[in-house]
Design a protein that fits this description.
Elements: E1 2-6, H1 13-23, E2 27-29, H2 33-40, H3 58-73, E3 76-80, H4 86-98, E4 103-109, H5 112-120, H6 130-134, H7 136-147, E5 152-155, H8 161-173
Helix pairs in contact: 1-8, 3-4
């Protein structure tokens, strides 16, 4: 099984994912961003883009890597990864389904003021990360048009990452 943690950059997916992994027996965290980083290391580089998810190989490589890891280890993969393009989500979720991999898709959500405050206080990318701020509107649009209908939404506005993880783990176990 895959527990996919979606949501905008800065909402707390990575932190929450680490807590979820501790709460689900026989689980591991797989950051699909590492697949994008591998593609970014190809020289000469792939065609220029502002997001490695736009490269056609990224999505099937994520599917293939996740399913191969699950074939090897069993258990659950916790995957904190923002996917805001519906077509890309469909490609990934359909690919996993073709391999018989069940996916529980959660979206970590917070109101805009909370997101801005978290991004302002970010110690990883630094305060007011332009990268994270640039994704607020695409996230809001995805949430309005398709994303929240495709996932179990966990409103983290007033939750700590540990509390959000507990809700997700309880939902997965039930």
């Amino acid at each position: 099984m895959i527990v996919w943690l979606n949501g905008t950059h800065g909402v707390g997916k990575t932190t929450t994912g680490a807590f979820v992994q501790r709460l689900l027996p026989d689980s591991r965290v797989f950051d699909a961003e590492k697949v994008g980083e591998a593609l970014m290391d190809i020289t000469p580089g792939l065609p220029a883009t502002d997001n490695f998810q736009h490269w056609p190989p990224w999505r099937p490589l994520v599917v293939e890597t996740a399913r191969r890891v699950l074939d090897y280890t069993g258990g659950t993969l916790v995957m904190p990864m923002t996917v805001l393009v519906e077509e890309y989500w469909r490609e990934i979720s359909t690919g996993l389904a073709r391999h018989g991999v069940p996916v529980r898709h959660f979206v970590l959500h917070a109101d805009r003021a909370t997101l801005r405050a978290r991004i302002a206080g970010d110690t990883v990318l630094g305060p007011d990360s332009p990268f994270r701020l640039r994704h607020l509107e695409p996230y809001a649009e995805a949430a309005r048009t398709w994303l929240h209908a495709e996932a179990e939404v966990v409103d983290t506005t007033r939750l700590t990452p540990a509390e959000a993880a507990r809700r997700i783990a309880d939902a997965v176990k039930s």
